[in-house]
């Protein structure tokens, strides 16, 4: 691992936005918060995968993977991050290095790939991702990107996050560091307003950002940049002129929020777009920070008026579902911000959360869960650090939960237990953010729970039923023969 990468990892781990991290000694802080992956013995994505996930939703730039074609093939379009215009991000670019490149180096091949992209696509920028193989053979992507920028007059951004550096979450932060080092602050917006905000850690999954934007538009609040869902290079480069930052997922990009506050004095808060109450609190906090930064105080009254209208409408629309879902139990296997933000939404729908995974959650996420469950003891009883598939199966089979909400990798556990399952992670096809998203989520849970298919699949197979009937008849016959005359 190069000295520069080691230094960047140490810098990422020294995170002032994490109370737990700041409570450690200096020596312990530099070790980081997560154990490094053991190749072949760990589930989940690598650092390269994390960096690609974090940055690929910037839709108008070319994302060039410097490595074997399998790295790009595995990471291409692995989230349903939607775009309102440009589609350059959906084209897979790779240097596709081979054995000869491993022997002689792949830097010339990388330079030629950058030139070809510039000539054929001409995007505003090219992001170049380092991978394990090219990092191990010593390719200096930072030098190549610097030379290409000078030669072609195009922003070529190195993203130094090879897979062996650590887990996916570290890759998220290394991708964010690339933005901080080479993108944010390099351009100026066409104009600014006292109502400009950045949304950080929002990936516009299935168009969720578009359910939030109309609410902000109604308040006159402008999203100067979204990092990175439906993002544009110029917007991200001029993000330093915003008046406030909203952090959606601190687990992935907290370093952007803390460093923007340090460099440009932009205050930030962590909020949630999931659930009626949390959506309202997020709007209030945005208004508060903007007023604090110089916006018209009348924004507060407009915010409360909008909240009153939207809350009444949302509660009325989910009323019939709340009656059908009351008392139903949910097992939530996800992580990060969703470990607490979705819990709030489920409780509003009348559901009981019997367990929520906190394996990928921060200390702040767990503190929010304690507030939601009412006490530390109650939260501890529902927080699951790590649950094996066997334990999930047993919990569902024994009807301790009526439905499981998780990512696609866990769905087969629920299906094997013949219990309802719904996708809550990034692969889903429905947007659950905002007031409108809350209604959609409740509708989808209701459909999954009350699907008549479950009654059918739980019935014994015809041959099993016939066999049971024969056994019962045989038992009755034996009992009759054994009875005294």
**CATH architectural arrangement of the largest domain:** 3-Layer(aba) Sandwich
**Secondary-structure content class:** alpha/beta
Number of DSSP helical runs? 23
Tell me how many strands there are: 13
* Amount of helix: 40-55%
Q: Ranges with pLDDT <50 over ≥5 residues?
A: none
CATH topology of the largest domain: Rossmann fold
> What strand line-up does the widest sheet have?
11-10-9-12-13
Alpha-carbon distance between the two ends: 89 Å
Mean pLDDT: 87
Radius of gyration: 26 Å
Can you summarize the main beta sheet?
5 strands, parallel
CATH superfamily of the largest domain: Nitrogenase molybdenum iron protein domain
Number of self-contained structural domains: 3
Large-scale geometry: globular
From the structure above, extract its key features:
485 residues, alpha/beta, Rossmann fold, five-stranded parallel beta sheet, four-stranded parallel beta sheet, 23 helices, NifE, NifE-like, Nase/OxRdtase_comp1
Produce a short descriptive summary.
This protein is 52% helix and 12% strand.
Structural topology:
Blueprint: H1 3-13, H2 19-22, H3 26-31, H4 47-55, E1 62-66, H5 69-75, E2 93-94, H6 99-104, H7 107-120, E3 125-130, H8 132-136, H9 141-152, E4 155-159, H10 168-182, E5 196-202, H11 209-219, E6 222-228, H12 233-237, E7 244-247, H13 250-264, E8 268-270, H14 276-292, H15 298-325, E9 329-333, H16 338-348, E10 352-357, H17 363-373, H18 376-382, E11 383-384, H19 389-397, E12 403-406, H20 411-416, E13 421-423, H21 434-449, H22 453-457, H23 462-482
Parallel strand pairs: 1-2, 1-3, 3-4, 5-6, 5-7, 7-8, 9-10, 9-12, 10-11, 12-13
């Amino acid at each position: 691992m190069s000295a520069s990468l080691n230094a960047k990892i140490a810098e990422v781990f020294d995170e002032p936005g994490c109370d737990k991290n700041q409570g450690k000694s200096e020596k312990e802080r530099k070790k980081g918060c997560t154990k490094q992956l053991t190749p072949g013995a760990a589930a989940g994505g690598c650092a390269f995968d994390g960096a690609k996930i974090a940055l690929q939703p910037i839709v108008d730039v070319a994302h060039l993977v410097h490595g074997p074609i399998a790295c790009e093939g595995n990471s291409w379009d692995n989230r349903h991050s939607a775009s309102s215009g440009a589609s350059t991000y959906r084209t897979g670019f790779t240097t596709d290095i081979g054995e000869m490149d491993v022997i002689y180096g792949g830097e010339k091949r990388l330079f030629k790939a950058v030139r070809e992209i510039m000539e054929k696509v001409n995007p505003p920028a090219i992001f170049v991702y380092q991978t394990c193989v090219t990092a191990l053979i010593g390719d200096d992507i930072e030098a190549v990107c610097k030379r290409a920028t000078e030669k072609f007059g195009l922003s070529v951004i190195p993203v130094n996050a090879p897979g062996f550096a650590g887990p996916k979450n570290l890759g998220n932060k290394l991708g964010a560091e690339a933005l901080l080092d080479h993108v944010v602050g390099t351009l100026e917006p066409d104009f600014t307003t006292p109502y400009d905000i950045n949304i950080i850690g929002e990936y516009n999954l299935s168009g969720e950002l578009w359910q939030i934007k109309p609410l902000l538009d109604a308040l006159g609040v402008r999203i100067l940049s979204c990092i990175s869902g439906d993002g544009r290079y110029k917007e991200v480069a001029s993000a330093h002129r915003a008046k406030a930052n909203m952090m959606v997922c601190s687990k992935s990009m907290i370093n952007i929020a803390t460093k923007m506050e340090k460099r440009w004095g932009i205050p930030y808060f962590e909020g949630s777009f999931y659930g009626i109450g949390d959506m309202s609190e997020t709007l209030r906090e945005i208004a508060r920070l903007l007023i604090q930064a110089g916006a018209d105080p009348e924004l507060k009254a407009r915010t409360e008026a909008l909240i009153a209208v939207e809350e009444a409408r949302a509660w009325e629309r989910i009323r019939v579902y709340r009656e059908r879902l009351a008392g139903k139990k949910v097992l939530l296997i996800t992580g990060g911000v969703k470990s607490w933000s979705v819990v709030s939404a489920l409780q509003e729908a009348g559901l009981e959360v019997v367990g929520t995974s906190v394996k990928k959650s921060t200390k702040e996420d767990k503190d929010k869960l304690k507030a939601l469950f009412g006490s530390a003891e109650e939260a501890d009883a529902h927080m699951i650090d790590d649950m094996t598939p066997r334990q999930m199966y047993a919990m569902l089979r024994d009807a301790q939960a009526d439905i499981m909400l998780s990512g696609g990798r866990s769905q087969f556990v629920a299906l094997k237990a013949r219990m309802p399952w719904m996708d809550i992670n990034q692969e889903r096809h429905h947007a659950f953010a905002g007031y409108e998203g809350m209604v959609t989520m409740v509708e989808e849970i209701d459909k999954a729970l009350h699907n008549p298919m479950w009654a059918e699949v739980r019935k014994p197979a015809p041959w099993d039923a016939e066999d049971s009937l024969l056994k019962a008849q045989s038992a009755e016959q034996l009992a009759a023969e054994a009875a005294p005359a």
